[in-house]
Specification:
The chain is mainly α and about 525 residues long. About 50% of the residues lie in helices and about 10% in strands.
C-alpha cells in the first residue's frame, strides 16, 4: 500500500461531513516545475478520498494580491521595474490577451497541471477580497492583534512591537502594497504609512492615510493570510514543502492562529513534502532559477511526467536532471510499473513480499493515469531503443518493433510508438541545440581561476587513493582562505571546467560524483 492510500484511510476515519483539499501559489512569474509536486500530491489525496467514498473537493488558490517583490530576469528591467511593490493582479500582463500579470502566469501553470489530469477549482485571492469574503477574518485578526503578537513570540521567538499589525493596505496614493505599514486600528479604520525604505525591492511614496480594511483595500501578511484562507474556504487538508513545516515556521504559526484566533482546526498537513529540484537547485518563480513547469512538461509525455511525481514517496527529495540517461531510466521505470499493472489485470501478481511490491507498482500506474487505462496488455517500445535508432538515422521504426514483437502492432501500440518517437526527436533536437551552443561559446579562465584549479588538482592528487567528502571540502576551503580568492570568481571557472555551466551542485558533491581522476583529467585539459 503506497502512502496516499494509507493517508486516505486515516482521513476517512475522522468522519468529517466534507473534506476540502487545497494548494496555493503566488503567481509572481513563470511557475517552476517544483510547484507541480504540490499540485499532484494534493490531487492524489483528493482522488483517493473520492475512491474511498469520501465527500471531497479540491481547489487551488492563486495569491494574486501579493506584491511583486522580485523582478523576473526574463522581463525588461526598464519596462517592469516601476511595478515593484504593486499587487500582482494590478500589474499589466506581458501578453495583452490576459487581464493582468498574475493571470498570465497562473494560466500557463493551470494548462500544465490540467494536462497532468489535475483539475482543481481555481480560486483567486483577489476575488475573495472583492466579494467581501475576507472582511470578517481581517477584522478578527486586527481585533486580536495582541494575541497574534503573543503567538509569534511563543512559537517563533519573534518579538513584534506594539505598533505592528499583520495587514498591508494598498496605498491610496501610489498603489503599492509591499511598502505600507499599519500603525493603528480603531475598530473601523486602519491608519498607515507608505514607507520610503521599508523593503529593498521597492520604494514607498511617504503617503499617510486611513482606510477600512475591507474588500480590495489590502490583505493580511502571509503567515496570517494562510489560516485566514483556511477559515474562509473551509480547507481541511493542505500540505506544503518542508521549508514551511519546520518548527516555528509558517505552518506552525498559521496553525496557532487558526486555533486561537479563528477557532478553526488546522488542515491535515501529513508532515509536508520534500522539494523537487533541477540539478540540485531549489527554484524560484521570479528569479528565473530552475526550469518552469511548462518547459519541463514539453520534454515528457504527460502520463510519464505525472508518473515522475507519483512514483516517489512524499518524503523523498526528487532531483531531476533531464538528460538522456535520466529520461531513459524514467521511461524504463514507467514500463516496469506498467508491466505490474498488466500482471494485476491478468491476475498474475504473486503472493508475499514480491506481490506487495508488484501491487504498489500497479497502483502507481493507476494513479499516474491521465486517461482511461488499457484493459489488456500492450506492447511498449523501449524509449532508449527509439532514441538510438533515430540517432542512427534508421527508417521504418514501426517495422523494426513489429519484427521485435514478432507480430503487428495494434492501433493503441502504434500510438505509444508514435508518441515516443515524438519525444525522442525532441530530446535529440535539444541535445543538438546544447552542443551547438557549447561550441559557439568559449570560456576563458582568469589568472585566479587557473591558479585555484592548479592548486586544487595538486591537492586532489595527494588524496585520490583514500578520501572522504569532508577531505574535499577542507581542501577547497583552505585554498580559498590561504590565497584570498573570491569564491564567486573561482567557482565560475570551476563549474565551467567540470560541467560547462556557470553553476552547479556543491563543489565537494560534484567532485565526488565525477570522481577525482576524472576531475584531474578535466582540469589538465583546460590548463594545458
Amino acid at each position: 500500500m503506497i502512502w496516499v492510500d494509507r493517508l486516505a484511510k486515516k482521513i476517512k476515519e475522522r468522519g468529517l461531513e466534507k473534506e476540502w483539499v487545497d494548494d496555493m501559489k503566488t503567481p509572481s512569474g513563470r511557475i517552476h516545475v517544483g510547484s507541480l509536486r504540490g499540485v499532484v500530491i494534493h490531487d492524489l489525496v483528493y482522488k483517493v478520498l473520492k475512491e474511498n467514498g469520501v465527500n471531497a473537493e479540491f481547489s487551488y488558490v492563486f495569491n494574486d494580491m501579493d506584491p511583486m517583490d522580485g523582478l523576473p530576469v526574463y522581463l525588461e528591467k526598464e519596462k517592469w521595474e516601476k511595478y515593484m511593490g504593486y499587487p500582482l493582479y494590478k500589474i499589466p500582463s506581458p501578453d495583452p490577451n490576459y487581464p493582468n500579470f498574475a493571470e498570465y502566469f497562473a494560466q500557463e501553470f493551470i494548462e500544465v497541471f490540467n494536462n497532468l489530469n489535475c483539475h482543481p477549482k481555481i480560486i483567486r485571492s483577489s476575488d475573495l477580497h472583492r466579494q467581501g469574503k475576507m472582511n470578517q477574518v481581517i477584522k478578527t485578526v486586527l481585533d486580536n492583534v495582541k494575541k497574534i503578537r503573543e503567538i509569534y513570540k511563543k512559537v517563533s521567538k519573534t518579538e513584534k512591537s506594539e505598533s505592528w499589525y499583520p495587514y498591508n493596505p494598498i496605498c491610496q496614493k501610489c498603489g503599492k502594497i509591499g511598502t505600507t505599514d499599519v500603525y493603528h486600528w480603531d475598530g473601523k479604520y486602519i491608519y498607515y504609512r507608505c514607507e520610503y525604505h521599508k523593503v529593498y525591492w521597492a520604494d514607498g511614496c511617504g503617503y499617510k492615510g486611513k482606510v477600512e480594511p475591507i474588500g480590495e483595500n489590502g490583505k493580511l501578511v502571509w503567515k496570517i493570510d494562510w489560516p485566514a484562507h483556511w477559515k474562509v474556504i473551509g480547507i481541511t487538508i493542505e500540505s506544503s514543502g518542508k521549508d514551511h513545516m519546520s518548527s516555528g515556521g509558517s505552518y506552525d504559526i498559521a496553525s496557532h492562529v487558526a486555533k486561537e484566533v479563528f477557532n478553526y482546526n488546522p488542515p491535515e498537513a501529513f508532515g509536508g513534502y520534500e522539494w523537487f529540484t533541477i540539478g540540485g537547485r531549489k527554484m524560484s518563480s521570479s528569479k528565473g532559477v530552475g526550469s518552469s513547469a511548462k518547459e519541463v512538461s514539453e520534454i515528457l509525455p504527460p502520463q510519464v511526467f505525472r508518473f515522475l511525481f507519483v512514483r516517489n514517496p512524499i518524503t523523498t527529495h526528487i532531483d531531476f536532471n533531464p538528460n538522456k540517461e535520466t529520461l531513459f531510466n524514467l521511461f524504463d521505470d514507467y514500463d516496469r510499473c506498467f508491466s505490474a499493472y498488466y500482471d494485476k489485470l491478468e491476475n498474475k501478481i504473486p503472493q508475499g513480499k514480491q506481490g506487495e511490491v508488484r501491487e504498489d507498482f500497479a497502483r502507481i500506474i493507476e494513479l499516474s493515469a491521465i486517461k482511461k487505462l488499457p484493459e489488456k496488455r500492450l506492447y511498449h517500445p523501449r524509449f532508449r531503443t527509439i532514441y538510438n535508432l533515430l540517432l542512427q538515422k534508421k527508417d521504418n521504426l514501426l517495422q523494426f518493433f513489429e519484427n521485435l514483437k514478432k507480430e503487428k502492432l495494434n492501433d493503441e501500440e502504434k500510438q505509444i510508438l508514435e508518441e515516443r518517437i515524438l519525444y525522442a526527436k525532441k530530446l535529440l533536437e535539444r541535445e543538438e541545440k546544447q552542443t551547438s551552443q557549447k561550441s559557439s561559446q568559449t570560456f576563458s579562465l582568469t589568472e585566479n581561476q587557473k591558479k585555484f584549479l592548479k592548486i586544487l588538482k595538486e591537492e586532489l592528487e595527494k588524496i585520490k587513493n583514500s578520501y572522504t567528502k569532508e577531505d574535499i571540502k577542507k581542501i577547497i576551503f583552505e585554498i580559498i582562505k590561504k590565497e584570498n580568492f573570491s569564491p564567486k570568481e573561482i567557482f565560475l571557472g570551476f563549474y565551467n571546467v567540470l560541467i560547462g555551466q556557470n553553476f552547479g551542485p556543491k563543489a565537494a558533491d560534484l567532485i565526488e560524483k565525477i570522481g577525482i581522476d576524472n576531475v584531474i583529467n578535466k582540469i589538465n585539459k583546460y590548463l594545458n
